[in-house]
Structures are given as structure tokens and as C-alpha cells.
Amino acid sequence: MACRNAYKTIIEETDKIQTSVTEPVVAKSVNRLLFGVDSKIQANDLLQNNIEEFEWIARNKIYPNFYGRYLTGENCLTKDEIKFLHSKGCKIAAIYVDEGEKRTEEQGVILAKKIDVRALELGIPEGTVIFLEISESEGVTRDFMKGFAKALMVEGYTPGFKANTDAKFGFDREFSRGMQTDKDIFKMCLIWAIAPTVKEYNGMTTSHLIHPDNWIPYAPSGITRNEVAIWQYGRECHPIEDDMGKVTTFNLDLVRNEQVIVEKMF
User: Does the predicted TM-score (pTM) go above 0.90?
Assistant: First the structure.
């Protein structure tokens, strides 16, 4: 997917991170919606109909501009899958999940360093955005997010959060606090909103619906929805069994404009 420099960062490893930030580029109208998917299933997983998951996605939707994949866990992203996706001309959106406590700034720093190790193992280039997935039940705090974002930028990556941005969940409240106290840091964090989903797309098994016409992700307090980087508008779509008998699905995503995404989505 073509990307533009919506966020530019100059980082010095000193006691205080110095940043030179340009405001996010906001499109005036929804004139281009770029389609992508995310899944815990590898894109080159062979299905029982003798095609790979990537082809199954393209057959049922449209050719994806990017594929969101997890850096850890069962069926996580591998170097072979990276080569496969790049051979298809598809970008990769990196997602990281960690079940540890997310309360202190130090915990955020430690997690960022763990992510850096994994990113280096996979050959993820510096500048790439890495989205930390935050579940609705996690007690994430502003301090944790601040430590995570600062440390990940020092490691050379762009911080992002994949979360339910509905105000009734804790992520919205804590992100809003961060925007009030440490705006220069939190403004650098890209948001992947997983709500709201559009009812007719959840669990869909037909291919006639491609994507909604309106860009309506929930925006965490402190930013507008035009500044949301990715919106997951449908989940667990087009179930099918793979060659090993495991049911596979994928989630549906949009970016509002290519200028919303940082330069390197590897």
C-alpha cells in the first residue's frame, strides 16, 4: 500500500525524547478507502479447497492492500510468510499481543524492548509501525502507554495501539489522559480502532459486500476519527477449514486515506 509521511519523528536517546512532529494529514473527504485484512491465520495456509488463505480473501473480497499479522503466538508471522506476502505485492501490518500487566511506565519500556528483539528476528525495518493489541478487559494505564511509546520510538519503530476505542472501555480514558499530559508522545501513536463493527459484515459468508461507504470508527478522546489509522469494521468472516481441519477466518479493515499511515508498513 502506498504510504506517506503523516508523522515524522527525530529521536535522541537522552533523558528527554526530542521530537519534531508534523500534524497528521487529514483528508477532506472520504474519496478513497483502502481495503485490508487481519487474521491469526497465516496468509500462505493451505485450505481444503486447495487454495491459500490469501487467495481465499481475494476471491471473496478484493485484493488486500495490507495483511495484519501477529508477531507472537500460535501461527505467528514468519520470514517465509513475509516473503509470500511481499511476493503478492501486499504490505504487512505488525500486531503484538502480550498478556503481562500494563500499569507502569517501566512495564511499557520493558515490553517495547521485547518487541524490538522480535522485530529484529523477523527483519522488520525501522520506521515500521507496530500495533500493540489492548483487550477490553485489560487495565492499561496512561503511564504504561507513555513508557511503551517512548521506548519503541527509541528502538526505531512507530508505536500504535489496536483497541476498542469505545468510551465505555478503559483504553479511551487512559489515552485521553495521555493526550492531555504528554501530547507530543501520544500524538505519535497510531490507532487501529476495532469498533464499531458493522453488523452485516460480521461473520459474513457471501462476497457481495465489499466495505461500508462511511468512515465511522470510534475515535479515542483527544483525536478525531479522521486521525484513526485503521478501522476494523467486520470480524470473523468467510469461515473455511484449512488442510489440517482448523477453521480459518479473517477480519475486515479499512484505511481512510493512504496519508494516514506512516511511511513504512513493511
Answer: no
